[in-house]
Amino acid sequence: MLPKPDHLQRLKDYAPFLLRVVCAWKLYDAAGHTALHPAEGIPGYADWLSTLHFPFPVVAATLSAYTEFLGAISLLLGWKTRWFCIPLVINFILAVIAGHWAIGDSFTNTFPALILLATSLFLGIHGPGKPSIDEGI
């Protein structure tokens, strides 16, 4: 195994920051339309979940939307990152299985949920890195 250059080793703790920012942007982009849009957001999402025969679609849509919205804020700030990753991982496992695979969705459409699942798993295990509130900025 080749030795790692010292200048890259010093940046290792900052690598998760890029993942947090990109993941937070994608979560906010998706959840912002769902959780914060009163007419089309949660009611439209709940209607779609009911077509999949998802139990308690309004409750599920509300929980999913606010998990993503609050998760975006948490990841961006690096606050309680590991704790917020638990509901995010559950949310994206359900999204992949019930929202994509169950309806035979294409890999292209499933890929964003898989990336958010993988990122949530990584940050839940690794932590937020620096800069973050969890790491004392």
Automatic annotation (TrEMBL):
Q: Does the keyword DNA-binding apply?
A: no
Q: Name one GO cellular component term.
A: plasma membrane
Q: Which domain of life is it from?
A: Bacteria
Q: Which InterPro entries match?
A: DoxX, DoxX-like_oxidoreductase
Pfam families annotated for this entry? DoxX
The compartments listed are:
Cell membrane
Q: Which UniProt keywords apply?
A: Cell membrane, Membrane, Transmembrane, Transmembrane helix
Membrane topology per the record?
Multi-pass membrane protein
Q: Does the keyword Transmembrane apply?
A: yes
Q: Which residue stretches, if any, does this entry annotate as coiled coil?
A: none
Location (main, coarse): membrane
TM ranges: 54-77, 84-103, 109-127
Task: Name the protein family.
Answer: Belongs to the DoxX family.
State the protein's name: DoxX family protein
Recall the taxonomic lineage recorded for the source organism.
Bacteria, Pseudomonadati, Bacteroidota, Cytophagia, Cytophagales
